[in-house]
Structure formats: C-alpha cells, structure tokens
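INFO batch 0412 | record 1 of 1 | parsing
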Amino acid sequence: MIKIGEYNTLEILRETEPGLFLEDDEGNEVLLPNRYVPKEFKIWDKLDVFVYLDNEERLVAVTDKPYIMRGEFAVLRCNAVTDHGAFLDWGMVKELFCPFREQAFSMKKGGWYLVYCFLDDESNRLVASSKTNQFLDNKELTVEQFQEVDLIVSHPSDIGMNVIVNKIHQGLIFTDDIFQDLSIGDRLKGFVKKIRPDNKLDIGLGKIGYRSIEPNADLIMKELDDHGGFLKLTDKSDPEAIKNALQMSKKSFKKAIGTLYKQKLIEIKDDGIYLVE
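INFO prediction complete | emitting tokens
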C-alpha cells in the first residue's frame, strides 16, 4: 500500500514520457515526474520517495525532503492566506494547506506556526493544524517518573510552558523550572518530574531529586575552574542570581554545594564559595 505523506520504498516499473512509474508490493502505481528521475537507473531498481497529492490532486512521488511528514509536528512559515485558509511552506512545490477550522489563532502571511500534519479523511489530502493539543493523549501514558523524554515546546501558559512529550503526550514545565530561553518549536531533552493523578505530566529540563546532584555539582566545579576558583554565590544568594549564573534552581544549587562541601572540594564563606586547592 502506498502511504500518502510518508516515505515509500518503491520499484521502478516502467519509463514513460512524463517520468517513471513506480510500484509497491501490491501493484499500486505512482508517477515520479521527470524532474525527480535519477540520472542513472534500471527497471526494478528501488527508490525511496515521498508521496503526496500534486496541484491537480493527483498522487505523485518526489525525491524532495519535506519539513514535516504525516503524523509529525514542525514550525512552518505561512506563505499566504486566502478565503479558504492558510498555505504553509513545507519544502514542497505544492504548499501545505491549513483550513481556518484548524487554526488555533488566525494565521498571517509571514508568521511561523507550530503545526501537526495529518491526512484529511474527506479530501484524502495532507493538511496542517495548529490546534496541536487534539493530537495528544494522556489517557494511557507511555512514560514513567524520572524517565528521559523528547520535548517540543508548544505554547506558553500562565504558569509555565506547555510541551509535547515524545510526540504523544502533553506536559508542562513550570516557570520556576525554566532556566533557559525557550521558543515555540524548540526540540530538547527533558525528564518526567511528576505524574499527577489525572495523568498530567510535570516536566523538568534537568535531572531531578538525587539524580540532579552529580551533574549540578560537576557544573559548579567547572564554573569555579573558569572563574579562578571563586563564585560569588552562597546558600543565601537570591534565586535569580543563581539562575542567571548557573541555570539551576536554588534548591538544586544548595544540594550540589552541600555535596561538594562534604567531599571537601569547596569552602563556603560569607562572600561566596571557594575551590579547595
């Protein structure tokens, strides 16, 4: 079966004037237009191609690499807005359509939007949606507490930043746990900090609890080395000062310097912490 919106490995069936016809294992055919035909090929060679509907709603295979595929999230630029909806640049000749009903906020030409790509059942066309939450499900979680996860920054809230977890679930990074600049569409690693009874996920950008002590302590040691063995920070320092200097919470900082002090690697004085010679 030829899958629309995905890469397909297909065999070259025959050469024609408009291009090569490719075939899957079930005998389904699709055209690879001349502009995508490789310089050298043989009948029955296999090609990896992306399949979608062209401007005339015909199934077509291409060798272009799209910025987003079916079932994926990506940040795309809006090229135009018409009476029917918005058209997004996804790296293909035919732009990706986002109907008004699938826009969380009205899209504007030149704007960038986080969208999900899916196959519309009625038109059999690939379309985009900026209403990304409808494609996430926390009813049956596939993650556990403390597990490392892949994140896509989704949209801000009054208490933090919403994120997409492993392309499946919805999670939240609370403002107090954000120690770096985050932009919509950013992809980064994180950890499941807490799973609430309603399956809501609290996400952290650094390892948490006892797991965070070692990497944070290591970071402080590196900062001490880089600053001549002294940091003007103590357990009484303002949380914002610690955040700006080390990108960690005051709680994590206190745990880390406590570990280093017990290991006799630092001295803690009124004016800051010193590296033990």
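INFO post-check: Residues 4 and 161 are 33 Å apart (CA to CA).
INFO record closed
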